[in-house]
Request: fold
Amino acid sequence: MPAPNRVTPTGEIVAIDQRGLFFGNRGRLHERPREIARPWQVRRWITCVLAYKGWVAPKWDPGRYTALFFWDEAVALAAGHRPCALCRRADYRAWGEAWAAVTGRRDGADDMDLRLHADRLAGRAQRRHRRPWADLPAGTFVALGTASGDENGGTPAVVLADRCLPWSPGGYGTAVDRPARGDALVLTPAVTVDVLAAGYAPVIHPARRAP
Reply:
């Protein structure tokens, strides 16, 4: 039976078979093994490689952070995470360069995490926003099939150059055309979308990716 430590593009922590390419954490979320007690503990939501210099993540260890798993980096970014400065140093630097291009400041991790926390949450729910389809960089997650005024529904999908790939617990599904006009309901935090537009390229899972 899968553990409840998989993260969806909407930021929820669920029990599904999907494990994926990355893991990360939001602090210590469990009080007992295989039981999530809170959705986050700290503002530092990071995304890490599965193994680093022979070290692997703790699994439900008492008093340690809770390891969370993401299908790919685009999912992690949509959920509000950023690259780890230790195990993904090169990616963290690339993220910082794009961040500086967007904000005009070379913020440290604490300042970036403060801004991300404001952009990813509305209370305890995911903060969503609308943005023109034409302005969305590849790697952004949107909610497909939402009517005007509906800010909560829709199918999560990652945006590519000319198509969108719907996400589900089974991975990415059949590609659909990317709309050329109108506004999209965006799941990825606003500042992260700006960072993607400034040149940061997230890893998108190759499985079932449309040609």
The longest strand covers residues 163-168. The chain has two domains: 6-119, 128-189.
